[in-house]
Amino acid sequence: MATRSTVPKLRLLLARRIRAERGRLGISQEELAERTGLHRTYIGSVERGERNVSIDNVERIARGLGVQPQELLSDEGK
Amino acid sequence: MATRSTVPKLRLLLARRIRAERGRLGISQEELAERTGLHRTYIGSVERGERNVSIDNVERIARGLGVQPQELLSDEGK
What we know:
2 copies of one chain form a homodimer.
Chain A lengths: L8 H17 L3 H8 L3 H8 L7 H11 L13
């Protein structure tokens, strides 16, 4: 949840990029959860920007999506 | 510390990139801590790859270093 003056923009970008890459692959949150070993509800909350995701989980999610981690933090592919 | 089968490579890359960018600026861990509002000992443990840093803190550290967050997860500038 965004509080005070600083909106965690990176978190929201990550959320959007994961949704976009998952959509590109045409897989469900359940499928991504299975690929990453994370829980479906966790994936859902990450995609809504509710989670302050750890770097280790960014790596797992990137691997599950078949992209480089930095691609999930970059606006280029928007 | 790397355990079991999967080494968190991204975490170690992040650690190395933060050290490199801080060195480029010629600032101490104390100075980076002050710029980010994080604790000096936390910065130290991040730079040793001991911390599973959150995405919000990656953003704060990138801002403190004056780089884009994805630059901290990319090997290009090595």
